[in-house]
């Protein structure tokens, strides 16, 4: 049985360019802020928008990629886990806390108009801390018009009972 789950998935826009630095041991780390927004109607029927700011930290190869490709305003998908750090303030002696998302996967969304990047507006690029490799979603290569036995847009009647996840 699982002990717990600590998983965060966000889609938002960078509030600043990633700040890159190296630890004393030489490991790369970047920090940046990510804004997520939601819209809703209040009790008076007026549209309201609420923005939340998230502190993101990425390590190693993923940090290198973030510092190279991400810029302020860029829309990204971030996957990671919550982590809370604490320290004593050197001036006041007061205990301070910071909760941040430790990024394990990052996918750039949008196109060049979304803050620079690779490909057109329909492309997305993803990087993973675990895989530490670049991957681009694969697309079938056009051939003589036949992509195999699967129809390109199956209707509900074409699914087998065993194909349904529930």
Describe the protein.
The chain has 166 residues and is mainly β. Helix content is 6%, strand content 44%. The chain is built from one helix and eight strands; from the N terminus they run ββββαββββ. Strands 1-3-4-6-5 form a five-stranded mixed beta barrel. A hairpin with a 5-residue loop joins strand 3 and strand 4. The longest helix has 10 residues. The chain starts with 7 loop residues before the first strand and ends in a 31-residue tail after the last strand. About 23% of the residues have low confidence.
- Which regions are unreliable across 5 or more consecutive residues at pLDDT < 50? 114-123, 131-159
The proportion of residues in beta strands is 35-45%
What is the ordering of alpha helices and beta strands? EEEEHEEEE
What percent of residues adopt helix (DSSP H or I)?
Answer: under 10%
Structural class: mainly beta
Largest sheet: 5 strands, mixed, barrel
How far the N terminus sits from the C terminus, by CA atoms, comes to: 21 Å
Read across the widest sheet, the strand sequence of neighbours is 1-3-4-6-5
Overall morphology: globular
Number of strands: 8
| Estimated radius of gyration | 21 Å
Mean pLDDT: 78
Number of helices: 1
């Amino acid at each position: 049985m699982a002990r717990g789950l600590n998983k965060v998935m966000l889609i938002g826009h960078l509030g600043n360019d990633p700040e890159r630095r190296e630890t004393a041991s030489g490991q790369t780390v970047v920090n940046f802020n990510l804004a997520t927004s939601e819209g809703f109607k209040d009790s008076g029927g007026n549209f309201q928008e609420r923005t939340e700011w998230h502190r993101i930290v990425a390590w190693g190869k993923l940090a290198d990629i973030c510092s190279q490709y991400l810029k302020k305003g860029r829309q990204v998908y971030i996957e990671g886990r919550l982590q809370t750090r604490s320290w004593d303030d050197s001036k006041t002696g007061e205990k301070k806390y910071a909760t941040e998302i430790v990024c394990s996967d990052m996918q750039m969304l949008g196109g060049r108009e979304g803050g620079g990047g690779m490909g057109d507006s329909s492309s997305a690029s993803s990087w993973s801390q675990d895989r530490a490799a670049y991957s681009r979603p694969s697309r079938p290569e056009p051939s003589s018009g036949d992509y195999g036995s699967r129809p390109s847009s199956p209707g509900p009647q074409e699914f087998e009972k065993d194909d349904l996840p529930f």
